[in-house]
Amino acid sequence: MVDFTADLADNHPDSVTVLGPGYANFGGASMCQGEVVTIELDRNNADLITLLRDEQGDGKVVVVDARRAYYAIVGENLMKFAQANGYVGIIVNGYIRDTLQIKDIPVALYALGTCSRKYIPVTQGTRNQSLSFGDAVFNPGDYVYADTDGVIVTATKLATETSA
Q1: Which CATH number fits the domain that encloses residue 32?
Q2: Percentage of the chain surpassing pLDDT 90?
């Protein structure tokens, strides 16, 4: 059964937090759900590349806080790594690029918008910590549901119910 964010928000109003406005899906999958993996970046995406390229995703969603820095964090190559290693989605508090190429890669990719440039000097990122942006808090191990209506986060996977 498909879990739609609107139904889950209606059926579990005290258990979900909705990611604030401004985030759009640029990926090839119209929806995703999975356990949260977190990473905070300082403009450069080298640590995210390592995560997506070298670690199995097993149906997880990577939540990236790039602090809204106006540099591309995810593009075609990272989306290919995500797909190859079983990640179902990426949520970026920042910007992405290569939208023409990534629209056919079956991984959801939520971001604030697009930017053509990337940040070249390598900077250090931080993994597996609580991230707060867009009126939501994402903790490692939380569960995310995302579709065309938006993104919600919960402490645990929710029981599926239907709403009218």
Answers
A1: 3.50.30.40
A2: 94
* Side-chain half-sphere CA neighbours of 49 within 13 A: 13
Radius of gyration of the chain measured on its C-alpha atoms:
15
Evaluate whether residue 26 is within a structural domain.
yes
Give the DSSP H or E segment for 46: helix 46-54
pLDDT digits (tens, 9 = 90+) for 130-151: 999 999 999 999 999 999 999 9
- The single-letter code of the amino acid at 114 is T
Number of domains within the chain = 1
Residues 19, 150: contact at Cβ < 8 Å?
yes
Quick check: is 159 in a domain? no
pLDDT at 137: 98
Q: How many CA atoms lie within 13 A of 122 on its CB side?
A: 5
Separation CA 121–CA 125 (nearest Å): 13
Residue type, 52: L
Domain span at 57: 5-154
Token pair listed for 66: 């790039």
Which residue type is seen at 133? F
DSSP letters for 51-86 = HHHHS--TT-EEEEE-TT-SSEEE-HHHHHHHHHTT
Q: What local confidence, expressed as pLDDT, does residue 160 receive? A: 66
